[in-house]
Amino acid sequence: MTAILSAAMFTFALLGSVLWDAPSPPADPAAVHDEVLRRAQVWVEPSTPIEKAKLGENPPGHGAFAAGQVVDCRFKPGGVSGTTPKFDCELPGGEKIKVKYGASNPEVYTEVAATRLLAALGFPTDRMYVVARLRCFGCPKHPFEVLQCVNGGTPIAKCFPGLDYARAQEFTPAVIERPVEGRRIETANERGWTWEELAKIDAKAGGATRDQVDALRLLAVLLGHWDNKANNQRLVCVGEMDSSGNCRRPLAMVQDLGSTFGPNKLNLTAWAATPIWSDAATCSVSMRKLPYGGSTFPDVRITEGGRRFLADRLRKLSPQQVHELFDGARISMYPHKTADARDAGTWARVFEDKVRAIADRDACPR
C-alpha cells in the first residue's frame, strides 16, 4: 500500500491530479486523500508577531497590491463557480487573477476581514487584496452574468457578442485573490475536506495537534463560517515532495471565507446574536442553527487546550487592531440598513464580546 500511495502522490506532483497508467491497478482516491489529511497541519507560527500584525492593510509579500492601486487586466472568459459576482482576469505579465466585485456583494468585505484575521493568528488562507479600482479590458458591464451564461454551455460570442479588448470597465469596490502557493491535493472524487474529516488528522503521524484543530473549529464558530462544504476547504502540498513522491508538508486550510460574520453574510445583528457555545458547561459548539444546518460542521466538544490555544492568540490583538480589521475591510461601503452596521467600531465591539466568551470563562471539562 505504501508503494501505491507513493506512486499516487508522485503522479499528482507532476500533473496536479491523480491519474493512473494501465495496466497498474488504480489506488483508492479516498485512501490517498485520507493518508495526506492524516499528516496535515492547520496552523503555523505567523512570521509577524500577532500584536504587530497590520490588520487594516493588504497582506505583504510577493505579488502584493497596494490598497490605493489602480489595476489593469484583460477579461478571461470561462466558467465560474458559486453565486457571488466574480471573474478571472489576466495581468499585463500574463498571470491570471480572480476578482470579486460589487458594492452590494458582501464577500468583498467579509473575505478580506476573515482572511486577514486567520493569517494574523497563524491559520493559513488565501490572500485578499483591496484595490482602489480595477480596470478590466474586454469586460462586459456585468461579467458574472455573462459567465453564468457560459456555464450553461452557450458560446461566449452569443453570451457577450460585444467583446472588445480596446475598452475597459471599471470596478470599485473590488478585491483580488491570490491563493496559497502549493500543489492542490485532489482527485476527481476528492476535492477539499469536510469539517467532519478533521478528526482524521493524527498528531502521532506528524499532523496538527488536537489543540490546534479545536482552535480552528472554534475560530470557524466565531466567524460563523456556515458555507463550509468540502469545496470551500483545500488540501495543499507546501514545498517539495520527498524522494518517494510523498508530500512532506500537507496543509488543511479554509479557502473560501466569504460566508462569514453573520448568517447570510455580513449581518451585524445576526452575528451578535449567534452564541459561541451551544452548551457552555461542556464547551460544545454547533452550527445547526445556521444556514444549511451546519453543512459539514459536526457538533463537537472543544478541549481546554484548544480553547486556550485560540484564546491566547486572540488576546494578543489590541482594540486598535480589531477596529482596523473592520475599517480596512471597508465594511462602511456595504449598503447596510442601519448606521451601527456601517460603523467599524460596532463590529469591533461584537468581535471583542465573542473573544471574551472564549477567553473569560472557566476551563473546559476534561
Average pLDDT reading: 89
Structural domains: how many: 2
Spatial arrangement of strands, main beta sheet: 4-7-3-2-1-5-6
Order of helices and strands: HHEEEHEEHHEEEHEEHEEHHH
Provide a count of the helices.
10
Radius of gyration: 21 Å
The number of E-state strands comes to 12
In percent, how helical is the residue content?
25-40%
Cα end-to-end separation: 37 Å
| Poorly predicted sequence stretches spanning 5 or more consecutive residues | 1-24
Tell me the β content.
Answer: 5-15%
Can you characterise this structure?
The strands form 3 sheets. A 7-stranded mixed β-sheet has the order 4-7-3-2-1-5-6. The chain is an alpha+beta fold. Helix content is 30%, strand content 14%. The protein has 2 domains: 206 residues, no CATH class; 109 residues, no CATH class.
Task: Outline the secondary-structure elements.
Elements: H1 2-15, H2 29-38, E1 70-76, E2 86-90, E3 96-101, H3 107-121, E4 127-131, E5 133-137, H4 143-151, H5 156-159, E6 168-171, E7 174-178, E8 183-184, H6 210-223, E9 233-237, E10 250-254, H7 268-273, E11 284-285, E12 300-301, H8 304-314, H9 319-328, H10 344-359
Parallel strand pairs: 1-5
Antiparallel strand pairs: 1-2, 2-3, 3-7, 4-7, 5-6, 8-9, 9-10, 11-12
